[in-house]
Amino acid sequence: CTGLGGCRSGRKDMALRCAAGLAAGRPPLRPRLPRPAREGTVRWSSAAKASAVKMNEKASREKILTLESMNPQVKAVEYAVRGPIVLKAGEIEKELRKGIKKPFTEVIKANIGDAHAMGQRPITFLRQVVALCTYPNLLDSPSFPEDAKKRARRILQGCGGNSLGAYTASQGINCIREDVASYITRRDGGVPADPDNIYLTTGASDGIATILKILVSGGGKSRTGVMIPIPQYPLYSAAISELDAIQVNYYLDEENCWALDVNELRRSLNEAKAYCNPKVLCIINPGNPTGQVQNRKCIEDVIHFAWEEKLFLLADEVYQDNVYSEGCQFHSFKKILYEMGPEYYNNVELASFHSTSKGYMGECGYRGGYMEVINLHPEIKGQLVKLLSVRLCPPVSGQAAMDIVVNPPIPGEESYSQFIKEKESVLNNLAKKAKLTEDMFNKVPGIHCNPLQGAMYAFPRIFIPSKAIEEAKAHKMAPDMFYCMKLLEETGICVVPGSGFGQREGSYHFRMTILPPVEKLKMLLEKVKDFHIKFLEKYA
């Protein structure tokens, strides 16, 4: 209706009634529309039905991306630390929250070295500096010490717009790289370090994967072979699979406290030359999952071997602060390489890695790390920077956290006493828990644990009876996966089977972190002992 008696309905009867109504002062009539179908029901014509069937046929066509069509290298990747056992632990946690009864009240995730998740307190000074960088208005607060403010201002001056929210150079903030170089020089007793050889990374993992990516080439028998320790941290096997490189295993000597033997390196290398081109040697020191700390002589032998065989060295040194056993000391590969003389120091290509995630800091979530790469060909250096620039830059808050690891308070500064007290408390506590774990495991029949010289894990060897091995096969599981799954289901303790790290055939292990608080760790170890004894009785 136009409101003036001009009807748009097209119906005479409505127009007459509407006009009369308007004359009487009533609102205009509206034409009655068809009543819509009830919600959830649709009225279809036969033509519409036929069209819908055709559309449905198209909608159910095969997916473009399937297990058969996906990148086979990605499908080959396995990462045991967050594998099937952890997924099962997550399912059990959900069941506990729903009130489903279990023989335990909580799942203890001893599968991963996540210090803060296990109750470790953050280092105050590190958090203060990152907080100041994140919210610079706090720089005016009297609640923060001046040495923390000084570091925060320096970091912010290196950021675009004085903000942690700005992109940085792909290699990382320059002043932080300078601090890393100074730290390396102090750590190694005066061995020079060049900030231009420092690359800040998203944790150590990012640096390791990046270096491997630039090293892998060739096809067939000339495809790059990467030598890794067995047992190993699964990052290495995962990265090698993703890059379609060739994994070359060398075995650590369990009977000799997981020592690295150069004769074993030579055996592994010579055998690998028949099917690939071995050109990378990876070392984890202190060891993960095995916890051994390499002595100076061993490192010298490894460097000489790499020099002799023209191998690129990767030194994973993220646990360099975690050394507990008397008589053990951390030696960096960079320091030993320098002290072996110019013939080695000027020629052996070496990438070393460190992180905020381990040590006494345990700041896993910040994803801070660095790598130092020396003796790199100048043209390759440009290629490395190009590759890093694709991911723009590492997390800037992680770069700030890394700066505090390498540039902590020094004697005479306001925060030094609290910082050193917190640092020593964490490391002393870890040393106590390392000894406790070793001692308690070695009292259990059918379990043997080497000394935990460093890092933050135990990797005990477990005896699994043949009857249990047969049952594991029936479930299409590795025997130690079967064992660990039973342990989880009966006690709520989540550990990682040794098969996820690699082990000699016929031997079985699991990896367990020593990070839980002392009393909780004792309870955990008692539960493992009781479970293992029952397991042996059941399958004897």
TrEMBL record:
Residues 128-527 form the Aminotransferase class I/classII large domain. The keyword Hydrolase does not apply. Its cofactor is pyridoxal 5'-phosphate. It catalyses: L-alanine + 2-oxoglutarate = pyruvate + L-glutamate. GO terms for cellular component: cytoplasm. The keyword Transferase applies. GO terms for biological process: L-alanine catabolic process. Keywords: Aminotransferase, Pyridoxal phosphate, Transferase. Gene3D superfamilies: 1.10.287.1970, Aspartate Aminotransferase, domain 1, Type I PLP-dependent aspartate aminotransferase-like (Major domain). CDD domains: AAT_like. It is an enzyme of class 2 (transferase). GO terms for molecular function: L-alanine:2-oxoglutarate aminotransferase activity; pyridoxal phosphate binding. Its EC number is 2.6.1.2. Pathway: Amino-acid degradation; L-alanine degradation via transaminase pathway; pyruvate from L-alanine: step 1/1. Pfam families: Aminotran_1_2. Signal peptide: none annotated. Belongs to the class-I pyridoxal-phosphate-dependent aminotransferase family. Alanine aminotransferase subfamily. Homodimer. Catalyzes the reversible transamination between alanine and 2-oxoglutarate to form pyruvate and glutamate. This is alanine transaminase. It comes from Hemiprocne comata. The gene is Gpt2.
